[in-house]
Amino acid sequence: MQLKYRGCSYDSNSTSAQVAPSNPTLIYRGVKYQQNSAAPQRATSQCQTLTYRGSVYFAC
C-alpha cells in the first residue's frame, strides 16, 4: 500500500505477529483462571478525505 507523510511517499510493510496456541492456567490471589490466547489481527485501512483550514488531504 502506498502511503504519504509530509509529502514523502513510501510503501507500507505490514507485519503480523505469530501466536502459538496455548491456554495457560493462571492464579491471581489464590483463584485459578484461564486466559484465552490473542488472535493475530490484520490492520485495515480506510482512506478518508479530510479538510483543515481549507486544505484538502487524504488520510489512509
Automatic annotation (TrEMBL):
InterPro entries hit by this protein: DUF4278
This protein's name: DUF4278 domain-containing protein
Organism, scientific name: Leptolyngbya boryana NIES-2135
